[in-house]
Amino acid sequence: MTKKKKLLLKILSGSKNISFSEVSNLLISLGFSLERIQGSHHIFYHHEIQQLVNIQNVNGQVKPYQLKQIIRIIEKFNLKIN
Prior knowledge:
Layout: H1 3-12, H2 20-29, E1 32-38, E2 41-46, E3 49-56, H3 64-77
Antiparallel strand pairs: 1-2, 2-3
């Protein structure tokens, strides 16, 4: 199993100890692309999903509510690692 798939399983299992860079790389692996950065907000876009994903780097971590939003999007759209 690849590192990214392990990370995806870790996120889906509810772990909160996930770094900003791990989440950013995972989003890219799921087909998202970094559309823009506004201040501390990193906005990701997926060509098949109209909903944007916003994450912030707070001391190297992603805010817990943003991680929950990402989990809901992954589950709702059944996203897989490319």
